[in-house]
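Record type: ASSEMBLY
Status: queued
Input:
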Amino acid sequence: MRESTMTCATFEAELGDFLEGTLDDATQAACERHRAGCAACAALVADLDAIVTSASSLPLPAMSRDLWPDIEARLATPVLDLSSAAARGASLASVRPAFMWRRLAVAAVALVTVSAGVTWNIARQAGELSPAASAVVASALETTGATETAGTSAASDIAELRDPAAVTPVAVAANTARPIALDTIYGREIAMLRTVAEENLGLLDSSTVAVVRRNLDIIDRAIRESREALATDPNSGFLLEQLDRAYERKVDLLRRLATL
Amino acid sequence: MHSLTVTGFLPDPSLHTRSTAHAVALAPASVAAPEAPDAEREDIAAATAGDRRAFERLYRSHGQRVFALCLRMTADRVLAEELVQDVFVRAWQKLGSFRGDAAFGTWLHRVAVNIVLSRRKHDGTQRDRTVQDEQSLDAAPAQPVSVGDRLDLEAAIASLPNGARRIFVLHDVEGYTHEEIGDLLGITSGGSKAQLHRARLLLREALSR
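Status: finished
Output:
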């Protein structure tokens, strides 16, 4: 019926789907017939076809200058190993923002919890922990255990977000490093990221911001307690590694906020 | 009704620097990508290990194409050049996450689209304008149409409202599907189709002046 009554207005209403080829067969055929008998509509279709064809083969515009020197200058900014964070970031890239932030909030808590828990179990079995180290681990477990985890399955998020193979250069050097070196190395990047991260927090809803801030507080507490423990046990490689990991988590979280 | 003459915006072969391989290498996920040339694979591996000269070669190969995307998406040359820098800095940081499942150009292209769209989210004015675009098909163009009897297609694209321009560029210039655009922009594929059709009609109107 449609073909016998199709007007230009009807044709134009169907035009988008007609060009996409998503109309049912009968309507598509009706549109074809209308186009064949209507010069104005045929011209319209021809014009749109010309636009589509041209758009797919546009020449590349030229940049006003070579941007590489500016890019390279930014690459020269000291940045720590990003492979693990980047891998995790890529896995999150296809996730819807709300889901990503739920996982982000969970990750900050979960990483502290699992890292401390695993280390606690391993070290306890090996009898390696000094009293100061034991206090730090116990504190981390206690703190994170009492913290909000945004109501999700932490275990699955942990498995996905934690990369056991990721070892930073700083962590490798933990036995010889000192807290002051870690403060310097991480402090520089944290300072750079903090401003942007704080700005981006404004893009999130208040409840998410609250969760993120609580988890930053947890990480800060882990850093503080590790440093305090190192003051009484300065040769503990374990404590240095704990401090390094806490810093790494903080940088990772800030980096994700900064690149939101 | 006269037929639209596209003088001035049909591509000049002498200026057409996008090779077929390049076009495919930078295609969206919906387009099959061939294997990267050995030299590019080596550069990717070297850049991932921290070799900036290798990364510079990747920039030389892909920078102009990324710039074209940024420029057409934003209709702002200065902003586009800033975004190109952001894209390559981000790519440098995230190279470790590139697994080679897709062509490097495809991966880089996705990084670029995300950066452009992220910048939009940071700009309250543009965000508001986008909302208007989604709500009303009668929204005024984001920029006044340039003086002249006939605009070339680039200028006409730049004159589109932001929402319509982004969808036109992603679909008709870059080859994304409506489903992919919907995922990127957080809209339905039907909304993407409607905006695309509107964009084409606005372009026709601009080019017919």
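Annotation: Residues 74-258 of chain A form one domain.
Annotation: The radius of gyration of chain A is 29 Å.
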